[in-house]
Design a protein that fits this description.
This protein is mostly helical. The protein has a single domain (22-171), classed as Up-down Bundle (Hypothetical Protein Ta1238, Chain: A). It is built from 6 helices and 2 strands, in the order ββαααααα. Strands 1-2 form a two-stranded antiparallel sheet. α1 (26-45) packs antiparallel against α4. The longest helix is centred in the last third of the chain and has 21 residues, at 150-170. The protein is globular and about 50 Å long.
């Protein structure tokens, strides 16, 4: 099966609703960012046991993003072609994310502060997915105007990714919402060495 068409070699691509636009069109940028978010969720899924609860949830979220991408790649004048739950985000999709966020947050006991990504491989992938989803959310403006729920869905999805990242870390470390270190690192200087410095200072402090 041949997967290339050569139709995009001139820098244009098809929208789902028909018509061709430049590949740097805002709708194409948004769709590409959503594709990236889906792949990042796939990286997180690769780190969890198959057929488990988290695996099932991540698969569902990845499938949801196909719906979000379909809506994002529909021209504003063709919204009448959208099918709720198939090519358009529905209120129930947003509400389900909110319910999942509440469920996860109810299991966590977090200190105030900033979460430091990287506690586990899965949590790091979820944090990466969160940042990509946030980027997609920023690109929704002007592409999916009201009454579209794409922006609301992505906002909740990023929150869920954050909550899941903290939850997966909690399986190994109880509290991962860590405040920034108070001690500042020693500054790196490129100033010339004093002419009277000792020899061990000249070679990096080795005795």
């Amino acid at each position: 099966m041949r997967i290339y068409t050569r139709r995009g070699d001139a820098g244009t691509t098809d929208l789902r609703s028909g018509g061709r636009v430049p590949k740097d069109d805002p709708s194409v940028e948004l769709t590409g960012t959503l594709d990236e978010a889906q792949a990042a969720l796939g990286v997180a899924r690769a780190e969890v046991p198959r057929e488990g609860d988290l695996d099932g949830l991540l698969v569902a979220l990845e499938r949801d993003l196909w719906i979000v991408m379909a809506e994002a790649s529909t021209a504003p004048g063709r919204r009448d072609s959208l099918v709720p739950g198939v090519t358009a985000v529905t209120p129930s999709m947003v509400e389900l994310l909110e319910a999942r966020i509440d469920e996860v947050m109810a299991t966590l006991d977090l200190d105030r502060g900033f979460a430091v990504p990287g506690g586990t491989r899965c949590s790091a992938a979820l944090d990466l997915a969160r940042t990509v989803v946030r980027r997609a959310e920023r690109r929704v403006v002007g592409v999916c105007p009201e009454p579209s729920l794409v922006g609301a869905y992505l906002n909740r999805l990023s929150d869920l990714c954050w909550a899941l990242a903290r939850s997966t870390e909690g399986a190994h470390l109880r509290v991962r919402d860590v405040a920034p270190a108070r001690a500042a690192p020693r500054p790196i200087t490129t100033a010339p060495r004093p002419s009277g410095a000792d020899e061990h200072e000249h070679d990096g402090g080795r005795a």
